[in-house]
Specification:
The chain has one domain: Porin. It contains four helices and 20 strands. The strands form three sheets. It has a 16-stranded antiparallel beta barrel. A two-stranded antiparallel sheet has the order 10-11. The protein is globular and about 65 Å long. The N terminus is likely disordered.
Amino acid sequence: MTKNNMSAAGGLALILAGLVAAPSLAAESTSESFLSLALSGRAMLDYTNAHAQNADFDLVDLEVRRLYLGLSGKLGDQFSFAVTGSLGDDGNVGLVGATIDWKPKGSSFKFRVGQFKTPMSLDESTSSKYTSVFERAAFTDAVQINRRLGFGIFNSGDNYTFSAGIFGGNLEQAPFDSGTAIAARATWTPVKSKDRVFHLGGSFRTRNQSQSQKDIRYRQRPFSHISNRIISTGRLGGKDLVLGFESAFIYKNMWAAGEYSLTKADCSTCASNPVFDGYYLETGIFFGGRKRYSKGSFSRPKVFKPVNEGGDGALAFVVRYDGLDLNDATIAGGRLDTIILGVDWYPTDHTRLGINYFNANATLGDSGSGLGSKFNKLRRSGVVGEDVEGVTIRLQYDF
């Protein structure tokens, strides 16, 4: 059994053990509620139909985008834990996250150990259940903002949040031999009321790969997760620094948000270290509901009249412009500009049926490292651009 499969099997075993033990543990809880347990889950089924113009091929597929099952709980009034497993579209079981939190009595600080997201970006900090469009900003995947094994510290108040951590690698890869990352994020909400929210934030991450790992590369897909990568820098070096700036605004049933990210990458073969950037701007409106915000990120939308209470649910409309530039004076990694138009129907707070139209315009780079074969063939033929246009339909449920 490989290390990856062992980690996945261990994660599934832990989840199943929790499920089996939950009833008896709950029955043994004292009147002081020393132990409490809760199950959670999410399912996202995507159908994508898209066309690549110059490469002249279709992208048509049905994908289980996410299928998660989680067990969380509290031990007394200071400790809590959470474990989440996933079943991939290929049938493989994976460990998404596993954390233990300690919040000392009377303190506003919380300490965490385990596998969790590096604290960066509004889009990345918002749960996939609540993102405005189906896929997060292109820069977040390009610079690999992900879950890692580490130690974190958290603090929050009425109008601010702060989080920071030091990390190794992902548990399913090489958690103790991937190098280290240090990340932090802070947010401030100078305006926060029932109908109005104004959010500002910033984050950074510095990363050092271990010598046993391959050099870092930056690449991205044309929005849809079923597509292969269309632009790539190739392998550059073992270090980078990412800075992020974010803002969001909610006014009654309308909202707007945007982020800008700068990445300075170490490059052992370049005349100077390249700098890449990425950003997005979005705006949207709800009918029959509204966007909600909590502790530095967007949270579960509110449906005023859900269908299970005799209502019609809520409709949301969103438009997003997303840009990623992997070109620099010394590197031609390509550029990706994407327009996304989204319509979502929320029958209830926990269900979503939506469609995202996307038009991704790519300027192809010089590197074929990690690209899809058809996009790489197009690049080798001397074509400098590609347009991928399509729709993704999502059916989503969580509990």
